[in-house]
Amino acid sequence: MKPSHGIFARTLIAAGTLLAALHAQAETLKIGIAGPVTGPVAQYGDMQKIGAMMAIDRINAAGGVNGISLEGIIYDDACDPKQAVAVANRIVNDEIRHVIGHLCSSSTEPASDIYEEEGVMMITAASTSPSITEKGYELIFRTIGLDSLQGKLAADHIINRVKPRNLAVIHDKQQYGEGLATTVRDLLAKAGIETVMFEGVTPGDKDFSALIAKLKRNNVDFVYYGGYHPELGLILRQSREKGFDVPFMGPEGVVNADLAAIAGKAMEGVLATAPKSFEQNPENAALVAAFKARDEDPSGPFVFTAYAAVQVLTDAIKATGETDPYTLADQLRANRFDTTIGEIGFDDRGDLTESTFIVYQLHADGSKTPISE
Amino acid sequence: MSETSLYVLQQLINGLTIGSTYALIAIGYTMVYGIIGMINFAHGEVYMIGSYTTFIAIIGLLTLGVSSLPIVLLLALITAIVIASTYGYAIERVAYRPLRGGPRLIPLITAIGMSIFLQNYIRLAQGSRDMAMPALVTGGIQFGDPAVFEVSISWMQMIIWCVTLVSMTALALFISRSRLGRACRACAQDLKMTNLLGIDTNRIIALTFIIGAALAAVAGVLLSLYYGTINPYIGFMAGLKAFTAAVLGGIGSIPGAMLGGLILGVTEALTAAFFPSEYKDVVAFGLLVLILLFRPTGLLGKPEVEKV
Amino acid sequence: MQRALFPALFAAGVTFLLTCLVIGVKLEQVGSELTVTGADPATWGWIATAVVIVFLVQLFQSPLGTLRRRLPAIEAHGLLPGHRLREQLRPWLIALVIVGLCVWPFMVSRGAVDLATLTLIYVMLGLGLNIVVGFAGLLDLGYVAFYAVGAYTYALLSEYFGLSFWVCLPLAGLLAATFGCILGFPVLRLRGDYLAIVTLGFGEIIRILLNNWTNVTGGPNGIGGIDKPTLFGLEFSRRASDGGETFHQYFGIEYVSSHKVIFLYLVAVLLVLLTLYVINRVQRMPIGRAWEALREDEIACRSLGLNPTVIKLSAFTMGAAFAGFAGCFFAARQGFISPESFTFIESAIILAIVVLGGMGSQLGIIMAAIAMTILPELAREFQEYRMLMFGGVMVLMMLWRPQGLLPMKRPHLELKNP
């Protein structure tokens, strides 16, 4: 009977080792990264993904958080609100308690309801719509400035530096663009500058000749555009073609190398509010090199905000020694964090306490120079 | 001239330009409908492919060092027409011919499927970002008192009018004078009878798809030069507008498609001129509904006689 | 073989033209410059393979065709038991399916239940559109407009007047039906293809209006914070809202987050069963018979004294009402709606469900709806190629089985040859 005893013992030991191994695996913390992997805005989802994954890999390489290693799990919502709800449910289902995402505000909004309800912490690195945090959520944070802050910056610049006589505000009828345009118009109205034209264009449209003729007719001398680069590029290009030569200003959504490609020379001198370029900050040089080494592009607007989102999360875990979202939420609100996007803190709503935007002047070769306030 | 009339003139010029290109694309819908009575939903994607081919050809030729602009444009036009026509032919051969004679809904679904397929095929092959090309034809003429309102017409707009006019005239002559054109008209009247008379109707149907695709390619070249940007999603809206134009003018009627395109373009421009431009599409579709209510077969469409 | 050579060469040439420029050459935006580069050799290898395959297939088309004809055709109905047996089994089968539908969510994960709920919304939409397209033969490309009307009815009534889901559900159906009636009345005089474009235009108009009417609908911001349905006033949330009571408090059980999802799912099941029941009843009524008669032959119908406008209008209205129900439920499931959920592609997907399932066949439509929502989830590995496959499958399905997965079978008598 002896040998069989031996086998039994050995089986036991093997099972024990296996259990131990399983236990060790349970020491990983899963972080959901939710955003578009497919669909027309997949390129922005990619920025968020490479930023968050880089942060996770670097933290793991440095020994993890309190001995726990992180694991990023990618979920695809295709920036479709319907799929975002499905993704949120799947994340709750997979017992993930920390999410970086979502990307599009229209996806973040329905998803954040579910996260709040189910006790999942969500930090978005890209959704800028003010209405997301207006409901007073406990577990929803963001590491990117709000549209309203950006709008205020633009309005201040127009009031103090531009002083237009006939101002037009154009937007693309989307959440982002229209929200910004409305903010700018209202702030200017308060300062006594009336908007002579406030109008939407259809996203994806290519012909703006009718709009430009109208701008010309109204003797507009300054245009604020709320929206993204494809439409603004065409408006600029067609304006210059028609001899309509006034300064334009846009939000961070237009600051993109593609704008230079579409608008060409017409883009010289366009003003834009944009986050400080984190990749040009000398303190981030090592990080930029790490992205370059992986053959990834660190210049997208959401790369560093996503990186910072993972940073604040892990810093809070380190400080509290817990992973419970409610404890972490208190920690996030009570402290300030040193991240790749600078030192940041969160207010009661979960928004950043400081604006990371400044005004830039764009040039035809795709470069930009900051205009100091 | 007063300020308002100059402004309206400017908007008419803008509207006619965009309307001309609607008309070019609308021909493809109307010819196919006239002969086999189906809506070729994938036609907008043929225009999109024509635009991509134009971009590839122009940039390719410039990279190869061909510097003469007319030669570049001519070669790009030929390339776009050849490739787009091949697509038109292949779509018909693969997706529609096997279904001919079946219920009418079936080819329509195939067409929607084909449209989604082609859109994503280009997206995967060329990426989903907007591609932009510097303006090759710049400048134009301006008239009117700058203090009142200055009307501008760019050379590109004039090129669009001329090319559209030439293509339309050529098509009209082809349809009314040539043997193949006569065969086309015969097919439109009675497909079965034409077949019995010894005309290869399959070949004629393929020909209509090719002609439609070629004209869509012409529109692709013109609009690529005019706007200078493309992405894989431009086909859908362009196709929808052109289809609206075709129905407006009376689907199946070639002069109707031209008229419908111009009316649609002008309506859009005038709406954008006097109302917020976000209502442009609402007015365009509203106009369509109105016209169909009073003339259920479109402006120039013949009332269909039901035969039992 | 000799005769096949020329067409095969031609087909190979066409394939080469289709692929050479569009796939073989790549446009690339480098900084602000646009460049073209030839694709890598592997891509050209694929192009060459495609050309060769097309050439060979065309060359051996006739032998292949004979081979294919020898294969037995798939006949789904042949797999089912005989007619009489089926009639006997039917009530039992239905009961079994209903019990199964109600029990399985308690055994699977929350994500799966949520996906099933989404599928049921599409089932409802498919069944509703089936009345218009499958029964009455009217091609409606703007069905999503009624879906949007239903969704916004609930969202707005709950936002401005605080009405509950159960009050809004019939209202949403009613309002969508009214819209259907108002739109249908002038439009239904038009013949098939004109009808298609007008409904398409109408769908776009509704979406653009919702997007532009910012004061009421919130424009592109949409409407958020829409309440979930309650069970006789009991809420399914962790903490009750003011004056409310939650499900787990009332029954004194532990809060389980998946209860909410399961409840939503059960509401969807209820709605789908209701839809099926109503449609099955109506289908057997004179009006249902009239729909099908009208689809088959309008002139014959008119000669028999049926009023085509009224018949078409009833189909249109009824289809719209079900879209309204579905929309109302969608708003409740989503908690947030914005116009971007109601684009043309949504209409196209619903239409694809109806056609893939087999127009008029309800079982087929249910299966198609399941396939359409589950397959993309399963195909997430091929995320990039998902829409490409979606389009391709739509084309191939129509070529392979134009009558749909499970074509509709009507009760009929056949004269057997002696």
From TrEMBL, chain A:
GO terms classed as biological process: amino acid transport
UniProt KW keywords: Amino-acid transport, Signal, Transport
Ranges for domain Leucine-binding protein: 28-366
Organism domain of life: Bacteria
Signal peptide per UniProt: 1-26
InterPro entries: Leu-bd, Leu_Ile_Val-bd, Peripla_BP_I
Pfam families with a match to the protein in the record: Peripla_BP_6 (PF13458)
CDD domains the UniProt entry points to: PBP1_ABC_LIVBP-like
Coiled coil (residue ranges): none
Membership in a protein family: Belongs to the leucine-binding protein family.
Record-given protein name: L-leucine-binding protein /L-isoleucine-binding protein /L-valine-binding protein
Organism per entry: Marinobacterium halophilum
TrEMBL record, chain B:
Name of this chain's protein: L-leucine ABC transporter membrane protein /L-isoleucine ABC transporter membrane protein /L-valine ABC transporter membrane protein
Similarity remark: Belongs to the binding-protein-dependent transport system permease family. LivHM subfamily.
One Pfam family recorded for the sequence: BPD_transp_2
Subcellular location: Cell inner membrane
GO CC terms of this entry: plasma membrane
Stored CDD domains: TM_PBP1_LivH_like
Source species taxonomy: Bacteria, Pseudomonadati, Pseudomonadota, Gammaproteobacteria, Oceanospirillales
Keywords: Amino-acid transport, Cell inner membrane, Cell membrane, Membrane, Transmembrane, Transmembrane helix, Transport
UniProt membrane topology term: Multi-pass membrane protein
Organism: Marinobacterium halophilum
An example molecular function term from Gene Ontology annotations: L-isoleucine transmembrane transporter activity
Automatic annotation (TrEMBL), chain C:
Transmembrane regions: 43-60, 92-109, 138-157, 163-185, 261-279, 313-336, 348-375, 387-403
Record bears the keyword Transmembrane helix: yes
Subcellular location: Cell inner membrane
GO CC terms in record: plasma membrane
Keywords noted in UniProt: Cell membrane, Membrane, Transmembrane, Transmembrane helix
A Pfam family assignment: BPD_transp_2
Keyword Transmembrane: yes
UniProt xrefs under InterPro entries: ABC_transp_permease, LivHM_N, LivM-like
Designated name of the protein: L-leucine ABC transporter membrane protein /L-isoleucine ABC transporter membrane protein /L-valine ABC transporter membrane protein
Organism: Marinobacterium halophilum
Origin organism lineage: Bacteria, Pseudomonadati, Pseudomonadota, Gammaproteobacteria, Oceanospirillales
